[in-house]
Design a protein that fits this description.
Oligomer: single chain
CATH topology of the largest domain: Tumour Suppressor Smad4
Structural class: alpha+beta
Number of strands: 16
Number of helices: 7
CATH superfamily of the largest domain: Probable inorganic polyphosphate/atp-NAD kinase, domain 2
CATH architecture of the largest domain: Sandwich
Number of domains: 2
Distance between the termini: 37 Å
Radius of gyration: 20 Å
Order of helices and strands: EHEHHEHEEHEEEEEHEEEEEEH
């Protein structure tokens, strides 16, 4: 089996776990490929881009937290086995203590692959990177609200002033969207969460909209400048009058799972 390894940068715990995995898989005479940045941190000479890993490996192993997973998912379409070295790591499936035993299960074929939806993002006719977690359209100026309309299939469902708005997949619903009052969503739900950020309107509430519909957020011409943030990594300026639209992507995020249900994960990692 061919393994790609992606490690959270500047994280001593993540580096330690990655070294142990490298040693373990080497003893099993497995093929191991390190992502370029990760290889530099671990003093490994041969390295690969995410795109090269996606073309070469059977399973991508991330060591870090949810941010490391989202970094990998920018290019990785192969199944991701996520190991946590961070505080919560809601999307992760193992930690440093259980990583080796989980690798043994994978080698024996004792695992499942689950698919999670991604969102396609378009602005000014240009396709931007797909979204595994969420996009956020937010004020570019501290303490200044933006004004915008939210449209579903070209019909306005909300007009408001707010610090911003989040459109999240069910996977991303347990992240930023949850912190602003959005719902926890079973990942089998085929829909996106729309969650306002500090709206200046008491009636503004989160929505769940089916994937078959197109969701757009359009800044009014009188709005302040905004920033579009894609999965917490890509930052794009959005001028007044511009429109950002999302629909279901043809691409999927794939995760290695071992039987723990979504509801178990919520109880263990979010209900503390």
């Amino acid at each position: 089996m061919k393994w790609g390894i992606i490690v959270k940068p500047n994280d001593e715990k993540a580096r330690k776990i990655a070294k142990e995995l490298h040693k373990f898989l080497s003893k099993k005479k497995e093929n191991i490929y390190f992502e370029k940045r990760s290889a530099e941190e671990l003093d490994i000479k041969e390295s690969f881009t995410l795109k090269e890993l996606n073309e070469s490996v059977d399973i991508a192993v991330t060591v870090g937290g949810d941010g490391t997973i989202l970094f990998a998912l920018r290019e990785i379409e192969k199944p991701v086995f996520a190991i946590n070295s961070s505080a919560v790591g809601f999307l992760t499936e193992a930690d440093g203590k259980t990583a080796k035993s989980r690798l043994e299960q994978i080698l024996k074929g004792e695992y499942n692959i689950v698919e999670r939806a991604k969102l396609k993002v378009v602005m000014d006719g240009k396709r931007l990177p797909d979204v595994a977690n969420e996009i956020t359209l937010q004020t570019a100026n501290i303490a200044k609200m933006i004004e915008f309309d939210v449209l579903v299939d070209e019909e306005i469902i909300e007009s408001m002033e707010a610090d911003g708005i989040i459109i999240a997949t069910p996977t991303g619903a347990t992240g930023y969207a949850l912190s602003v009052g959005g719902p926890i969503v079973d990942p089998e739900i085929q829909g996106a969460v729309i969650a306002p950020i500090a709206p200046f309107k008491l009636s503004a509430r989160p929505w769940i909209v089916p994937y078959r519909k197109k969701i757009c957020v359009e800044l009014t011409k009188d709005s302040k400048e905004a920033k579009l943030v894609i999965d917490g990594r890509d930052y794009i300026s959005v001028s007044p009058g511009k429109k950002v639209c999302v629909t279901a992507s043809e691409e999927k995020a794939r995760f290695v799972r071992f039987g723990e249900s979504f509801y178990q994960a919520v109880r263990l990692k979010l209900v503390r």
